[in-house]
Amino acid sequence: MATYRFGGGGPEIAAQGRSFAIGQTVGTWVPLPGLTRELMERHGARVLSATPVAAGGTDVQVAFPLINFRAGGLPMLMTTLLGNDPSTGIAATLIDLSLPADYAREFGGPRFGIGGWRDLLGVHGRPLVLNPMKPCIGLSPAATAAIAAEVARGGVDLVKDDEVLADASFSHVAERCKAVSVALDEVASQNGKRTRYVVSITDRARRMRDHVVAARENGADGVMVAAFMIGLDALQEVVEEVDGGLPVIAHTAGLDLFGGADGLSVAPEILVGRLARLAGADAVLIGSPWARRSTPEPLWTRMAGLLRDDWSGLAPAFPVVGGGIVADQLADVVRDLGVDVIVTAGGAINGHPEGAEAGARAMMTALGEAVVNASSTAAAR
């Protein structure tokens, strides 16, 4: 069942919903040979309700027959929900999605999820800290490895590539994974903590399969893709290719492209917390209220909630907070989202005046204080 929010009200909204339901299934509203009552009952979508919203607008719930799209995976699910045929087009936003648990489990959802990430890292009871290494692009594998080692000595849990770097002529995936892995192993032999590396592999679908193999064979600990640039089906292909052997981060570059006031759109929290999770992402970027292109706080908390709730029997996924995070904001992150979150800190670590290692240590210290203070505040209540 899908819920769409329309901007207006009145009987015409329900009529638009019914026209849309027909257009997205049997596809016509005039008598045709072969359009029998039995076919309509088996394959036609139905409007279940049209409910006025206190803040304005109307929420229309539409039930789509699973038989229509079950065999077609995410591409046919998305086409059914958001295809918006011109003859029956609507101006509305998909704001909720309910799937039968047995159908959702066919996708698999997150293979690692929050529990798997924590077991991999051996970290429980606090947020994870991830450093998206800076500069973002242009470095050799050796130079990237040197940065990874420096921040690892400062105690961060994870390092990763920026989303604008994948398999480049100056830094191929296999070479970068090998260099970073060796560097992190060396630091672990000195301080006993193995920081984990997530490699960016965004590319054409067939090449991403090769990158997954390269990541596995050369010591990477996870992979990241720009999920909405490659498409949700390609994200699912990556998840199936790693087959539970590596966690997958879905970067949300391009999320803003899916909105639009003049036609049918999908709410960002549904893309992030429902569809990317359905495709199998173990962690998904949700931005932050402090970023230059900020995620408003109510949306931010909704995204985090939808990634971690009990939905259709799928494992919860980590929200990844990012976008100009500094140490002073960690208390707010823990207060608003709790401890089941990955915090990314780039410039605050790599641009620290005393060096990246000092920046990492300062961030880890601030995080520890934020968790202790949050626990004390909760106990006092």
What order do the helices and strands follow?
EHHEEHEHHEHEHEHEHHEEHEHEHEHH
Query: What is the global morphology?
Result: globular
CATH fold assignment of the largest domain: TIM Barrel
CATH architecture of the largest domain: Alpha-Beta Barrel
Terminal residue distance: 39 Å
Radius of gyration: 23 Å
The largest pleated sheet is described as: 8 strands, parallel, barrel
User: Any low-confidence stretches, pLDDT <50, length ≥5?
Assistant: none
The number of domains is: 2
Estimated structural class: alpha/beta
Look at the structure and give the mean pLDDT.
93
What's the CATH H-level superfamily name of the largest domain?
Answer: Ribulose bisphosphate carboxylase, large subunit, C-terminal domain
Helical element count? 15
What share of residues are in beta strands? 15-25%
Counting DSSP E segments of at least 2 residues, the number of strands comes to 13
What would CATH call the class of the largest domain? Alpha Beta
